[in-house]
Amino acid sequence: MNTFREIILCKYGELILKGANLATFESLLMKDLRARARRFGDFRISHVQSTLYVEPLSDACDLSGLMASLHKLFGIAGITRAAVAEKNMEDILRVACAYLPPLLAGKHSFRVDAKRADKSFPLPSPEIAAQVGGALLSCVPGLRVDLHHPASLIRVEIRENAAYIHADQEKGAGGMPPRSGGKGLLLLSGGIDSPVAGFMMAKRGVEIEALHFESFPYTGERAREKVFTLARELCEYCTRIPVHVISLTHIQEELRAHCEEDYFTLLLRRFMMHLAERCAARYGCRALITGESLGQVASQTMAAIAVTNEIVSLPVLRPCIGLDKEEIIRIARGIGTYDTSVLPYEDCCTIFTPRHPRTRPQLEKVLSEQNKVDFAALADEAFASMYTVSCTPEER
Ligand code: ATP
Ligand code: MG
Questions:
Q1: Which of 52, 114, 244, 316 has a 20 to 30 Å separation from 133 between CA atoms?
Q2: Is the minimum distance from the CB of 245 to ligand 1 under 6 angstroms?
Q3: Segments making up each domain of the chain, as ranges
Q4: Which fold has domain 183-395?
Q5: In the beta sheet, which residues pair with residue 209?
Q6: Nearest ligand to the C-alpha of residue 189?
Q7: Architecture of 5-171 per CATH?
Q8: What is the pLDDT of residues 41-81, one digit of tens each?
Q9: Ligand 2 centroid to 143 CA: how many Å?
Q10: Residue-wise over 1-40: b if at least 16 C-beta within 10 A, else e?
Q11: Does residue 17 surpass a pLDDT of 80?
């Protein structure tokens, strides 16, 4: 049985700079945090001065599970477990000596920083730090103080309702709170890049809906499932992602039957962008998001992007545009989507691929190829095939 209570403290990231909008951002952050906490037990959540307090209300609460989830909550810059003490030195020293020794195991040096948000506390900060440091030296053998390069940084915070003691605050996910940046429609393939693009925009507070194009039966059931799995993996950062699915089968067959092979991919991508814009309009998304990276493949040269971009008027956000494949893969591994992305199932872009795709297409030529099919009728038919699957992390 612990002789102290343990809670989680979360420190805000750049939202503290948002002045008059702070309260709005704060309530979005709290809302997401509450939704996450429900999976791990009964918690009381409050905020004071750019810190969120997450207090377990029963012993059954899974603090470690919630910590792991909060590491993926955008808007939080720092996160730590902390022990709660009464606001007097006797209790602070008692809790420090009960709570900190296991956290200092294997560490040879430490420093204590104290902070008084409550200025009515009778001792000044350096004195609080000195007393806690002294107590630690006597209760943890072999430990020494190192003010400049401590192996462990202990913090004692005297706040309004209590004192909080913690060691080595961890870095949070950073970025802006979920849903603070409007809603975007992510074109989600089964590849490596588009989940990373979704992650990067979610980090800026964008609420993500996803649109996947399939080409059933050329693409199979497992390719479809793979995309839902990717969406669920991204849900660790975004809570819930509706995935809209549109079939391109008939469009691809018509392009193959009537158009020059070299233009297949560009024409297909123009259909995709057009359908994505219609989907965005239906679901209130204010931008499209793709995983394109300049020069990565023939359809991602500047000239090819210009041709596919020409058909839409919504902004198209391409957060991977300046990253090379290595960098994208590093992020994909970090966010846990890489292993799913490399599963070897067909994507609609990998069937009927031209042997010599155009890297410097002329718009006039692309339009004349596009006119060989009934663009409007094919787009209407594809759009009518759209269905939606709502993905949440619990289903993983
Ligand atoms: P990824 O790794 O994301 O599949 P990629 O390098 O394979 O990217 P492309 O196939 O040219 O590149 O696709 C570029 C972008 O177009 C993707 O990042 C994605 O945003 C979108 N896209 C491609 N295929 C699909 C699809 N089947 N469904 C939805 N979006 C797609
Ligand atoms: Mg792809």
A1: 52
A2: no
A3: 5-171, 183-395
A4: Rossmann fold (3.40.50)
A5: 185
A6: 1
A7: 2-Layer Sandwich (3.30)
A8: 999 999 988 899 999 999 999 999 999 999 999 999 999 99
A9: 54
A10: eeebebbbbbbbbebeebeeeeeebbebbbebbeebbeeb
A11: no
